[in-house]
Amino acid sequence: MRIPDESRRVSTMIDPKKIRSAQFNDIYYPYVDGVVQTVHNYAGLMNQTGYCCVVTPRPPQNYDDSDKGYEIYRTSSLRVPFVEYALPAPKFDNKIKTFLQNRKLDILHAHSPFMEGSFAASYAKKLGIPSVASFHSKYYDDVINITGSKTLAKIVTAKIVRFYKSVDSVWSCSAGTADTLRSYGYRGDIVVMDNGTTYEMPSNPDELRAKAAAAFKIPADKHILLFVGQQIWHKNLKLVLDTFKLLENHCDDYRLFIVGNGYDGAAIRKYADAQDFRDGRVNFVGKIADREVLQGLYLSADLFFFPSMYDNSPLVVREAASMGVPSLLTAGSNAAEAIEHNVTGFTAEENKVAMFREILRIFGTEGLLEQVSDAARQNVAKTWKEIVPLVQEKYAEIIEAYQFQHRTK
Known about the structure:
Blueprint: E1 20-24, H1 34-46, E2 51-57, E3 72-75, E4 77-78, E5 87-88, H2 96-102, E6 107-110, H3 115-127, E7 131-135, H4 139-147, H5 150-165, E8 169-172, H6 175-183, E9 191-192, H7 205-216, E10 223-228, H8 237-250, E11 254-259, H9 265-274, E12 282-286, H10 291-300, E13 303-305, H11 315-322, E14 327-330, E15 346-348, H12 352-364, H13 368-379, H14 384-407
Parallel strand pairs: 1-2, 1-6, 2-3, 6-7, 7-8, 8-9, 10-11, 10-13, 11-12, 13-14, 14-15
Antiparallel strand pairs: 4-5
């Protein structure tokens, strides 16, 4: 959908804060990833002035949604053996259409190109309202990682491109992510809408830092490197461990803390064991559900080490920045788009020697880390409270354009 020229548009005087929307995603709590956090913050903040609900599949186990502060409609889902997530089946849900009609929605937003997103795109047309679809993930890489088949990956990405062509507005979380979608064959316009963070510098940083130090045995006289994310190989955890091995062989000034879990977790720990790190140098702390505890761990770190080539616009980089912790990222990665090297963060080539040398430079250059830490906190860490009003304004623009086009047909 092309937004018409301003001189031809008849304004509908839409109040962005009053827009009624629905967010669709194929997974949701109790599972948590960056997309789930995005949807949660959209819905929570939009409900403060307007209305926003979330449509997502029923999880395999019982889960209480009552604490979220907004409506969540759980569509029918199918339990697949040996698969952690439920398979969404909104087309077989007899009540979802009534639910959506009764909410008198202005726009539907799909955060996945699969079951829930496909339903949102098609049903928006029946409701006579526009649809938005966000491109969040490197689906080609996902399929390769799961199946090992390039042929299947090409089939899936071709289907994904057809999906994005079917909606009224396509969004991505970074320019690099938009380029990824274009590399799949999509040629339409793409709106870049940044991600945000819920973290802000707390009023009691010293207290949170002290609690984390006690809980995780963090030494005060060492340089602390931190990784937070799913334990999966394609987040470049081998590079993290290989780089740290060089650091350990060089001196005893560094400690590494790795937060998260994932389906490659056991293999990653086995690889770390094979490196024969000395006691206390590398610490796998698992998943941290308590956001305040994780905040304390961020505050205890000196450098966020996240060389992933897979992630598009990682929320963890912004979380770290909000606590004044700059990131070391892989040069040329989508994740690195959020920072300026040597100003708001650091980058190095995707190999252990380059990363090793960059870490030595960062900690060996007087005043550099402190200067970049301040700049990261001020410029990288956009909050969801800043982002969501921009989302609402863009919704209003899309709705006006959609209504104009349908009035002139």
